[in-house]
Amino acid sequence: MATPIGNLEDITLRAIRILKEVRLIAAEDTRRTRILLDQYAISTPLTSLYDQNEMKKSGFLIAKLLQGLDVAYVSDAGTPGISDPGYILVREALTREIPVAPIPGASALIAALSVSGLPMDSFIFFGFLPSKAVRRRQFLNSLRQEERTLIFYESPHRLLASLKDIEGAFGDREVVVSREMTKIHEEFLRGSPGRLIAGMEERAIKGEVTLIVAGRTGGTAEPSDAELLDLCGQLRRDTEEQLSLRDTADRIARQTGVSRRRIYRLLLFP
What we know:
This protein is α/β, with parallel strands linked by helices. Helix content is 41%, strand content 14%. The protein has 3 domains: 83 residues, Cobalt-precorrin-4 Transmethylase, domain 1 (3-Layer(aba) Sandwich), CATH 3.40.1010.10; 106 residues, Methyltransferase, Cobalt-precorrin-4 Transmethylase, Domain 2 (2-Layer Sandwich); 44 residues, no CATH class. A 5-stranded mixed beta sheet has the order 4-5-8-6-7, sandwiched between helices. A 3-stranded parallel beta sheet has the order 2-1-3, with helices on both faces.
């Protein structure tokens, strides 16, 4: 069952009714769900089901369902199973031919995409980017030819590092950073990765983040970081004069169409 991603009013009338009618609510975080239930005077008993106990707790809930009790499952926010627990419970119920009904509602990725200004007719969602820098860069580089709009979740403390890696993989493609959606401090930032980085470097970034990146358009894809470094090295070897990093970046930018800022940063921090 989908629950609000921020504003508690973003819940359907059907969801409120179902939460009152079921015999038990399983929640990723009972403390957060209790806030929602109190808002709508819902007194249904709560039990927990989160990543670390989903396998074990699913058996308990399946037993309740087999006894004829109706059970609702909610994650912290949004739609369960979308980078949240819920998949194992649904799978176990279906293997036992227990009916599973979706109660649709809020989803951060759809909410962010709907106001991104980027193409919505074809998109692909990858969940959270890898937390390790090397794996993240490899993963992003594998998507350089992808023409669909790309959607990721990211934690606030990794946002700047991920934007730098997005610039390294995709160049100056348009990016939308959606932060704290439907909450008091809701914010949407749009622009190239370099521009977004410059605007956020001195800020304390908080809250849930959804990243949307434009897919590759027609024409030749921008060179990768490794290819750009090779071009820079070749230029400096083939040029008799001693080129500064800025001069090298200027020439390679004119040659490739890649932003000078991206190349210069890459030369400073290869």
